[in-house]
Automatic annotation (TrEMBL):
Catalytic activity: (2R)-3-phosphoglycerate + NAD(+) = 3-phosphooxypyruvate + NADH + H(+)
The protein's Enzyme Commission number: 1.1.1.95
Protein origin, superkingdom: Eukaryota
Compositional bias (Polar residues): 72-87
An example Gene Ontology molecular-function term: phosphoglycerate dehydrogenase activity
Disordered: annotated segments: 11-50, 72-94
Pathway entry: Amino-acid biosynthesis; L-serine biosynthesis; L-serine from 3-phospho-D-glycerate: step 1/3
Family listed: Belongs to the D-isomer specific 2-hydroxyacid dehydrogenase family.
Protein name as catalogued: phosphoglycerate dehydrogenase
Annotated keywords: NAD, Oxidoreductase
Amino acid sequence: MSLSSSIALFAPSSPPRTFSSSHSTNNSNTLSSIRTPGTPTSTAATTTTATSSSYFTTRVMPSMSIPSTPVQQITGNNNVPPTNEGTPVSVRERQGSFGGSNKVKILKPFNTANIKILLLENVNETAVTALRDQGYQVEAHVKALPEDVLIEKIRDVHCIGIRSKTKLTKKVLEAAEKLGVIGCFCIGTNQVDLEVAAQKGIAVFNSPFSNSRSVAELVLAEIVLLSRQLGDRSREMHQGVWQKVSANCYEIRGKTLGIVGYGHIGSQLSVLAESMGMRVFFHDVVPLMPLGTSKQVHTLDELLELSDFITLHVPETEETKNMIGEAELAKMKQGAYLINASRGTVVQIPALAKALRSGHLGGAAVDVFPKEPAANGPFFESELVGCPNTLLTPHIGGSTEEAQSMIGVEVSQALIKFINSGTSIGAVNFPEVDLRAIRDEENSIRLCYTHMNVPGVLLRITNILAEHNVDKQFSDSKGKIAYLMADISDVTPEQIQEIYRRVSETPTNIVTRVLY
């Protein structure tokens, strides 16, 4: 992207409308009258022409060097803050954060009907409803889109919601001219190029915990199914074969469960397994407080050697890629079982198939695979097909109605908070910043400034805001990106426009927003 190019984020596309500048006493963000140009107003209300209360400026790919050419803004009424020329402005005393009104001001940062949101892969209806209730334009699709169709669609949307099959690669993100935020309605975010998204000022949110109970229950069920060889018995019955056996079938009571990764899923599974009479050990890269009577072991090898069942609950990282291979499987007990409901790249599938066919392992349950079909249908191939006592499921660990509903609520609320008030708490690729609610005052604004993380930026911003009453301010950085939020009171429309102009023209600017 050229440094001199200009892209408006959440830029309104409809013609300007004229709003009354006096606020309703019942809802601080609801303007007391909305009219079309030319409609007379009472003398008690002044008018300001605007399409939106949120203004977004150019994105610049961050680098450690400061560009010599200032970032340019889009010109035109739709992309500059409102002015109030010719209207007398009352002067009020400067107040601190705890002065003035105690009411909370609910920010409505734009004409919400102009915000376009694209939801793919049958995102739960709880999310669709929550986003539509905000007044956004929501387009929902049951399946993932082909890359060429996705590239065309993403050019004009401000927010996209996906699950695990949609790949937001660098190529796709570079076509996203207005995109400001991504919602991953799942645990993982490896389907998104997080670095490119951050460089474009695009925050990415996910739901790391909402489906943990569903996954834990599936794993516990698989432990029972494997120990009784129920997968094989069921298949035989469907084929008309009656095979009543007890050899190599066991109760799980008294058996040892080894959990690799003691996070939200692993710890819940620990409690459930203990309630079934199992002994629980776990391994994690950091020391953690055990739940119940479970115990942490120091090494993965130690866990592999002492466990009857090994279950994996780790993220996809360079350290976890192929972490279970031929050498690790050989260290497991003769007749032990392996369960993987984490990431498909964690286990080397050929090595697992060999261990199953040789009889070294008593069985396995695999819910995730290195390569998964992009759509439902007869597309699945794996070396594990036909292995004895092997349960294969199509990545359904978190696929329950309860989990999808909770994910829909959690991610949609994160998207709404980021769009409406700038809150980035929970973003996986973005500095996490939040401020307490802004005061319910007419002439107060919130500045949200995403910028390159280089020395001298805060000095520039301090100089710009030096003549204004900054109620509160917070800044954080993550890698090459930094994010600042500041609430400013007692500002006139002309001053709002000037703050926006000066901040957005800083050479380190990526995205600037003014909310009020």
